[in-house]
Amino acid sequence: MSSSSAAGEQDREYRIEHDFLGDVRVPTESYAGAETMRAIRNFPITGIAISQMPELIIALAWIKKAAAKTNFEADDLTAKQAKAIMAACDEIIAGQHHTEFCIDVIQGGAGTSTNMNANEVIANRALEIMGHERGDYQYLHPKDDVNKCQSTNDVYASAIRLTIVQVNKQLCAATKKCVEAFATKAEQFAHIPKLGRTQLQDAVPMTVGQEMQAFADALAEDISRIEDMQKLFLEVNIGGTAIGTAVGVSRHYLDNIIPNLQQTCNLELTPSANKIEASWDTGIFVFYSGLLKRLATKLSKISNDLRLLSSGPLGGIGELILPQKQPGSSIMPGKVNPVIPEVMNQICFRVFGADTTVTFAAESGQLQLNAMEPVIIWSIYDSCTSIIAGMDTLVTNCINDLQVDEARVADLLNSGTARVTELMPHVGYAAATKIAQYIIEHRVPLDIAIHEILPDRTEELFAKLDLQ
Questions:
Q1: Same fold, 29-148 and 155-407
Q2: CATH topology of domain 155-407
Q3: Which terminal residue of the chain, N or C, has fewer Cβ atoms less than 10 Å from its own Cβ?
Q4: What digits encode the pLDDT tens for the residues 182-240?
């Protein structure tokens, strides 16, 4: 620690809070409390705070608000307490106090630290609203009141599902935007014939429009799957408390928490059919991570194609002209790199790795709880938001201004063997092969090769292939 940092720490004011492990110093200005401070010290892992998942913070506030309303209805909270908790939650839902959620995204404890971070922030803000000092928990307690009828087992499990619901909508919108961009290019380039390739070798003719439409349709296939995932994450185990047994929950709470939460977040929620199973089963996250990997595989393949087709520009294929976004070298003058497809590739590689993480984490749950949920939600959240950002920049900085070098496209098509396949129905495979070999050996266009190999049929074949 630098001397200036040390001096800053010395000048900072603290209050003393207590938990069953002892006293904890908490910065006076902090809404967080003792257990949050312990978690900050225990998990200095990535340097990325849970506040970087704002949808998770909002989901936690939804749950705490609905719980406060339900507990008030059951006479388990006073009107003053419930009103203050709900007001604090509304502020968080509106985007306030998110910096108070400062625990690392990777943490032990199955999300307990995150749940307590929420309980403490809401409790201390609610105390202020009630006219009390932060940390004066005799009037409103993080566990006894904010966390009443709840456990991390059901709060965190439900919150991470509601997090995916929010982000999934953004993913669907971004994918549609990408599909529309490629479809627009397909229409724009529909008139341009080009060389189709298999295994990086000349194959048969197609159009640039067909190539772009194939990109669009490959991504469009996943939109319905992304939308279908929504209802699976709307099944939540809130009300199950510890391991799904509903221990410590009033009858009123059990019957009304889902309807109240549904009203709070305006989502069509359903209760888990088996709350004990739902407390440990993270299979839905494996399923969703696999969908992200599938989408990333397609995006990476498309990005590879964009890089290949724009390669050169003089020494490679050079059919596509990508927008020039930045100088490509500190030493090679005039070089411009395909940086936007390159960044999309790199995003996709991270998604592939994250999917492996999710798989291992889901498998590693033991008995009645999966303690690895924090790395599951962070891996999926990071993958999902990175894909969204990647598709947005791919559309904005690459696809929208994509151009075709029509002269280069025509030259490659007409000087290759692609159209020889069209001759097979008329001359047979053996004769067509001789024509293809002649083109390759002598570097001549198709019309000359036909004339040399089948001189007596030149006029007929020219007519069939519409050659001049």
A1: no
A2: Fumarase C; Chain A, domain 2 (1.20.200)
A3: C
A4: 999 999 999 999 998 888 888 888 999 999 999 999 999 999 888 888 889 998 898 88
Number of Cβ atoms within 10 Å of the Cβ of 90: 13
**Which tokens in the block code for residue 70?**
């339900």
The rounded mean pLDDT for the chain is: 90
**If DSSP states are collapsed to H, E and C, what string results for 201-218?**
EEEEEEEHHHHHHHHHHH
What are the structural domain ranges in the chain?
29-148, 155-407, 417-465
Q: How far apart are CA 194 and CA 192, in angstroms?
A: 6
3-state SS assignment for residue 322: coil
What is the distance between the alpha carbons of residues 378 and 48, in angstroms, rounded to a whole number?
A: 10
Q: Are 163 and 380 in contact (CB under 8 A)?
A: no
Token readout for 143 is 């566990």
Domain topology for 29-148: Fumarase C; Chain B, domain 1 (1.10.275)
What does pTM read for this prediction? Answer: 0.89
Residue numbers of the chain with a pLDDT score lower than 70: 1-11, 468
329, 379, 383, 415: which is the annotated catalytic residue? 329
Which class for 22: exposed (0-12), middle (13-18), buried (19 or more C-beta within 10 A)? exposed
Q: What's the one-letter identity of residue 187?
A: E
| Three-state DSSP state, 468 | coil
329 is catalytic: yes
Residue 271, CB-side half-sphere exposure with 13 Å CA sphere: 17
